[in-house]
Amino acid sequence: MSVTVTETNNTVTISGSYFLPPPSYIQANSAIQEAKSYGGTSTQLNYIFNDSVNDIEGAAANAGVWSNIIIAGGNTANPNLMRGTTSLRTIIGGYNNIIGRAANTDVNEGINSQVLGGSHARIVMNNQDRTSIVSHGTIVGGAFNEITNGDFGIISGGRNNKIEEKQGAYSAGEYASVSNGYCAVISGGYGNSNSGYTAVVGGGYQNNVRLKDSVIAGGYSNNIDEPKDYATSASLEHSTIGGGRSNNIFATTGGTICGGKDNSINLAPAAGGPPEADGPINAGAYMSIGGGLNNRIARAVAGFPLVSDCSYSTIIGGWNNLVNNIGGTVIGGVDNQVQAAYATSFGRGAQARNAGGFVQGGQAFSAVGDAQSSVYVLKCQTTDATATEMQSMGTSLTMRNDTAWSFRALVVGRDSATNSSVGYEVKGLVHNDSGTAAIVGTVGVTTLGESSTPTNMSACDVTATVSGATLRIMATGIASTTIKWVCRLEIAEVTG
């Protein structure tokens, strides 16, 4: 507004211009002024703005329809609608937004739900689900967002995002909800879905969560999914994918993938299809992949035996690495594998096949594991003068066929009752041809030191032998004396 006041010969002249609201503003204001109340009783308190196109079903005839309000928005082709016989719903603006199913008589379906702008939003109980009611849902803006299952769900914006249930079909043709989007959240993004109990999708594109208390922060086409055996899914929870692309966590508790691409925890050999196609149920818990490309932690892998548990396994990063047993670790690198419990591999082309091994790959000649070195910690306890095998994690060290090992072992023994000790170095060469191991040459044993009192440890002995396809470091103690033995075994290995 601009106004000028001029005084001339006792005459005051006011000139200038002032702002007139545009017609659209006037029309909108008029629509607000023309809000209409609907209901058979004065306590129903249903209100519609722009009532010529928007509609609250049953408001005039059913006393159970009360305290619903549609504030503006909508047009002839795309009205805002409230369906069913429930209450306490709100639609503010936008168009083609719908809360409730037409002619539904369940008073809780969609109750206390709201759509705050945007278009094509739906807060509607799934037509196939006869057991779950969606209520207290909120959609804030965006387009084509849907909440079809789970109380207290929130979609903050974006496009084509869904909070829904996963269904299992019974033989009678009915459906039951097997994962529930209670208190689920989708913060935004495009094409995301969430049916996990108190689960969250932060954003991104085509991400999917189906496990309880799980999170996908963002990224593209990431999945936290549940097994075909729906009865087991209730105990699977607390998994996280930070971002990246096409990462999958399946049927796991406490799994974590921080990022990267095509990484997976607990997928089946046919990893290209939907996780539930043929995946084994529950590989364990608390497995993690830091990032990288095409890294896998799985109990079922093509070409490997099915193991019972991969819990507590970790791949820090790298490319095309695999852990296929409990407590395994790949530090990084390329084409490294862990097939044994509590083993570690790194470098390039390492394959940890014996429990507790720390294996470094030096780039394979032709196959993973054919050029590498390993370190093991072996132990045993003797109480007599019988030779006893020292083992790694309670297991013997097995050689591959057509393989040679050059080995060196540092061995220490201690009688803690008398503080007496003994130490040895053991060196040798062993090879395995067609399944039978043999010592090549002579095993060298050097005594590093031995206590003479109070226990005369010179009666002890250490050597290396073979049995079948295994290399064995043997410790011989003293009668009626408890001696704890520990060995650091280093192996240079070649296969072919």
Question: How would you describe this protein?
Answer:
The chain is an all-beta fold. Among the domains are: 254-369; 372-495, Immunoglobulin-like (Sandwich). It is built from 1 helix and 45 strands. The strands form 5 sheets. The protein has a 22-stranded mixed β-sheet, with no helix packed on it. The model is unreliable at 16-34, 167-178 and 269-279 (pLDDT under 50).
Short description:
By secondary structure, this protein is an all-beta fold. Helix content is 2%, strand content 38%.
Top keywords for this entry?
single chain, Immunoglobulin-like, 15-stranded parallel sheet, mainly beta, 496 residues
Topology:
Layout: E1 2-8, E2 11-17, H1 23-33, E3 36-38, E4 46-48, E5 55-56, E6 69-71, E7 81-82, E8 90-92, E9 98-99, E10 114-116, E11 122-123, E12 138-140, E13 146-147, E14 154-155, E15 162-163, E16 166-169, E17 175-179, E18 185-186, E19 193-194, E20 200-201, E21 208-209, E22 215-216, E23 223-225, E24 240-241, E25 248-250, E26 256-257, E27 264-265, E28 288-289, E29 296-297, E30 314-315, E31 322-323, E32 329-330, E33 337-338, E34 344-348, E35 351-352, E36 358-362, E37 371-382, E38 387-390, E39 397-398, E40 403-415, E41 420-433, E42 436-450, E43 461-467, E44 470-476, E45 483-495
Parallel strand pairs: 4-6, 5-7, 6-8, 7-9, 8-10, 9-11, 10-12, 11-13, 12-14, 13-15, 14-18, 15-19, 18-20, 19-21, 20-22, 21-23, 22-24, 23-25, 24-26, 25-27, 26-28, 27-29, 28-30, 29-31, 30-32, 31-33, 32-34, 33-35, 34-36
Antiparallel strand pairs: 1-2, 3-4, 16-17, 36-37, 37-45, 38-44, 39-44, 40-41, 40-45, 41-42, 43-44
